[in-house]
Design a protein that fits this description.
The protein is an all-beta fold. Helix content is 0%, strand content 49%. It is built from no helices and 13 strands. A hairpin with a 6-residue loop joins strand 8 and strand 9. It starts with 6 loop residues before the first strand and ends with a strand.
Length: 218
């Protein structure tokens, strides 16, 4: 089986390379096995305050069951040392996903990880939404974390099989992923404390893993 790292598009040439995802196949009632041939993901565009140039990358797992987005500078914060705009950070990825002929895919689940230091009274929120270019169907999620908290965090989005949104067969439509981290000071004292939430870490990058469901096209 070919191990395929992402080919970076011209509009996102500043992206850095990332190791391929090593996540297991998604669990659920998806009966179609992944295609034996490689898939290729080209990054059409990447932009946002949470993913400045050179700080995000995408890689495909060797078994075609997942892809990983790696961030190294995705941090939202409030309080001492923060700028007024630091309370919210976001990243929008626009991906060209090339799959073997006769197959199509949907995002079955997504695993998000990071670190949070939230003072008592502060609240951190991680949001995401996913959609195919030109499609009115959007899948959204919202996860909230309340202080006091000083630990790694994890959030998982899972889609019921009946709600899976598959890419149209025989069409190449870009897949969009919008993520956001948002901090609210709440009742915490921003004159004396700092609360922050990351989708990165001080000792290495944090991976966000998107698990794929497959089906054959007629």
């Amino acid at each position: 089986m070919v191990r395929m790292l992402v080919a970076v598009g011209a509009t996102a040439a500043s992206l850095v390379a990332a190791p391929a995802a090593s996540a297991a196949a998604p669990t659920g009632p998806w009966t179609t096995p992944p295609p034996p041939d490689k898939i290729v993901i080209n990054v059409a565009t990447v932009n946002g305050s949470g993913c400045p140039a050179g700080t995000a990358a995408v890689a495909v797992s060797p078994d075609n069951t997942a892809f990983t987005v790696t961030y190294s500078d995705y941090l939202a914060q409030v309080g001492v040392g923060s700028k007024p705009t630091d309370f919210r950070k976001n990243c929008q990825l626009n991906l060209n996903v090339h799959v073997p002929q006769g197959f199509t895919y949907a995002i079955a689940s997504a695993d998000y990880r990071g670190f949070a230091h939230l003072e008592r009274g502060a609240v951190g929120t991680q949001k995401a939404n996913y959609y195919f270019q030109g499609s009115p169907q959007t899948t959204s999620s919202n996860h909230q974390f309340k202080g006091p908290l000083d630990d790694s965090w994890q959030a998982t989005d899972s889609v019921d099989v009946a709600a899976l949104v598959f890419a149209p067969c025989g069409e190449l439509r870009n897949f969009n992923i919008n993520t956001e981290l948002r901090l609210s000071a709440g009742t915490s004292d921003t004159a004396k404390t700092t609360s922050f939430m990351t989708m990165d870490s001080t000792d290495g990058d944090i991976n966000t893993v998107y698990h794929l469901a497959w089906k054959t096209c007629p």
